[in-house]
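Fig. S4 source data, part A: sequence.
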Amino acid sequence: MTDVPMVSGLDSDGIVVEWTKVKNLGSGSYGQVHLAKLSNLISGDHLLAAVKSCAYSRSASIQKELHILRQFEDSNRIVECSVMW
């Protein structure tokens, strides 16, 4: 699959980023998970990440998941979780 521009916005640190869908990894009841290339629009840095997205009407589930993951953000057993608006 070719890169398809998806979203530009601010990450949880206030950095302007754009994520580009590379591949659909799966979907479930509340949304989809994509392999995505994240690009920092200021520094030009890039990284690959799994990005979960959903329709706004289903966003309460992802918000609840984020709230739970933030309780464990200092654990070395939890992958980093960031938010992009």
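Fig. S4 source data, part B ends here. Residues 4-70 form one domain.
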